[in-house]
Amino acid sequence: xxxxxxxxxxxxxxxxLWLATRALMLWLLVHGGAPxxxxxxxxxxxxxxxxxxxxxxxxxxFPVHDTLWQYPPGAGAVLLAPDLLPGLTYFExxxxxxxxxxxxxxxxxxxxxxxxxRSLLGAALWTGGLPLLLHMPLARYDVQVTxxxxxxxxxxxxxxxxxGVLAAVGALVKVWPALVLLGTPRGRPTRRAWAWGAxxxxxxxxxxxxxxxxxxSFLREQGxxxxxxxxLGGTALNLARHFGWPGRARYRYGAVEMTGPHVxxxxxxxxxLTAVSFGLLVLWRVRARRWSEATPxxxxxxxxxxxxxxxxxxxxxxxxxxxxxxxxxxxxxxxxQRPVAVLxxxxxxxxxxxxxxxxxxxxxxxxxGCLLMLSRNGLLTAAAVLSFVRLWRSTRPPAGRPAPSTxxxxxxxxxxxxxxxxx
Length: 423
Hints:
The chain has 423 residues and is an all-alpha fold. It contains 17 helices and three strands. The chain has helices at 8-30, 41-57, 74-80, 90-113, 121-129, 142-156, 160-174, 188-211, 218-222, 232-240, 263-287, 295-309, 318-330, 338-357, 359-364, 367-394, 412-421, and strands at residues 227-228, 248-252, 255-259. Strands 1-3-2 form a three-stranded antiparallel beta sheet. The radius of gyration is 22 Å and the shape is globular. The termini are close together.
């Protein structure tokens, strides 16, 4: 019996593309002091803020009374990880580890894409999409978080337990990876993934609490955040400045936020929309009747998109999350999220124009800055709506036909793979 073999050409091409684009990103990182690249503001996050937190964490405590520390305790492990590479500065070690995790992510996507019935478009999207954000992905730890979410989704198809554990670890680092478990098939896969995720999360949290003091200090600072200038609400307020609104932009909680009349109302509206989005996702979960191999991937992308566009904060690095989840979707030929992936790539390119290239225009509230953010956020909103609509339709039974069972038969995925790989 012969097995279906994948031509090595596309894999080698993607590998070469990854090496070339990452070399370009490193070059941009080295020259990040140029005014058009942010004047060093992108890299400052690592060598100043992350390194400062590293010093506190190394003494056995999470930052306390630090308004910039707004991350779950798992983030501490990521910020301490550069210590594993002696002989390098903290900045050099952080970038080296980020590139390593990036390579691991593309390798996982390549492996998933070379399986029978799968596609290499996912690996291509991650490889070519991440450089659209210039050098910023190398100076944030969102690549590490996204890798955990990507690995969780890819592992869940074969082992819901592993998927649940990886999602829990990711949630302890930056909360949102918990959403990737939303689309697990009903029945035993869901019970296993959610149960193992809960146990793994509790165990990891207990370990962190035993090793470090004040593990939940981030909750106090997270609740105080306002409306960031790049969010939908912040963009609306920034535009309102041209029509007489007396507010202004101010640096608070590690981001540029809008201050002035009605800001609290806009923040409340954002939280309300987030709650509505959660309700829509629960409604989808209850009414969904058809599951394909792509449904868990599509649901994860749709959920994170909805929570992103309704958030009070849409930082540039959030685009890393969306690129990673869109890449997982495109590993399956059954996904309905291909148009959504295109919108995400366009939004990512505009995000780089807004930050770091023309961030002064955005903060200053000029017409150019406002129109730039309106375009970026308009693309993200369109992507979120389109993603949810396509997810909803893909899981509804055809008109006039009874709904098939939502739970696949045990071993059916492996049997299907064996049949496809035989010739």
